[in-house]
Amino acid sequence: MAKFDYDLITIGAGSGGVRASRLSAGYGGRVAAVEESRVGGTCVMRGCVPKKLLVYGAHYADHFEDAAGFGWTVGDVSHDWGALVAAKDKELDRLEQVYHRMFKDSGVSLLEGHGVLSDPHTVDVAGKSYTADKILVGVGGWPFVPDIPGREHTITSNEALDLKELPGHILIVGGGYIALEFAGIFKALGSKVDVLVRTGTILRGFDHDVCGTVSEELEKKGIAIHRDCAVRSIEKRDDGKFSVMVDHGEEMIVDQVMYATGRNPNTKGIGLEEAGVAMNDKGAVVVDEWNRSNVENIFAVGDVTDRVNLTPVALNEGRVFAETFFNNNPMTLDYTNIASAVFTQPTVGTVGMTEEQARKDHTVKIYVSRFKAMKHTLSGRDERIMMKIIVDKESDKVLGCHMVGDDSPEVIQGLAVALKCGATKAQFDATIGIHPTAAEEFVTMRDAVPDSADV
After folding, report:
1. pTM of structure
2. Mean pLDDT, consecutive 10-residue segments, the chain of 455 residues?
3. Which residues are part of the catalytic machinery?
4. Which domains does the chain have, with CATH numbers?
5. What is the spatial distance between Cα 325 and Cα 143, in angstroms, rounded to a whole number?
């Protein structure tokens, strides 16, 4: 008889856990996945997918306005927030059923309930115990809200996706990509939006030209960004609104307060400490290049490890785990030159090093282009595209590419392949562009920022 009930139990049916479970089962493993909420995890149910659907809906505000410049007459338009949320929910229901079918077709058993490790080989779920040779933790992250007076009156990105009504005035606390994406959604659909940032800049960790361009474009759209301040307290008023006191003494009266101040690994209450699994000060599972924790048979992938918190990274960590331990094909993941996007309005696409990162170890040449998209020569919209290339002066290797503007994630995806292959600026220059496109600017920038290598 088998020593364990399963060869693998995955705790958490998000992107990384689903991929690892399906592939491991496909390679012959006896696999079960534990999920206490909806199969699909943060990305599909509470993050990338529903948020992107709302972003698509928000874009129509600009499209209707821009149409006049191309000869269209658009009558009175209005937006039904409830209809958009209902359509989004219908699509999420469809996707969840797809995930259930994928588990069934691949032979993965779904154990519904809260999974807790009672020892390194045993997971308790809904009053029953299940054993496995290997345990994979893929429980993702959860929004963090600081402990301030009135924090019970706040919402996070989780609740923002399901609001019954569009807030007339919303304060969004945080300057990261989640905060700014929701700021764009709410503003385009009709809300008054204030963004409060604890530091002096938004999008910390992104290239400074990206941060500056996004900040300028969001403020053009009427989003107010308050820098170098934080919330002191929140009180609910008799009229249902909220009184928010910020640290320099100003009071803001708003309909909704949303916190987007980061996410922490969702590791509390699942028995990791009791099983002896080492975690860092944020609660992330510490793993090696094989996704293995300090406990030999316990592994972790995705945001719960707090390495590179992106869905495609989690998917690939799940893939290399299955290949290594269930297909006798050992492999690790290369974390260099991972492209990413921010679905602000306009969007951001980025791959490789920022200028600040590159200057630490390289002598660099910087190429920057700012221009108005052809579409807006007729629409009249005052929106600029920014493109940037960072090049190692000695080797001519392209170290980073950054873009702010419509379709920038689509453009950067192709450039990510080039950077993965070690492309040089000379090879960019030798590439013939597609005309007329904005993307061709990446292969036509010839003049570096004056003395950029010496700045």
Report:
1. 0.95
2. 91 97 98 95 92 97 96 94 97 96 96 96 97 98 96 97 97 97 98 96 97 98 96 96 92 97 96 96 97 98 96 97 98 97 97 97 97 95 97 98 97 98 98 97 95 63
3. 435
4. 6-143+264-326 (3.50.50.60), 151-261 (3.50.50.60), 340-454 (3.30.390.30)
5. 32
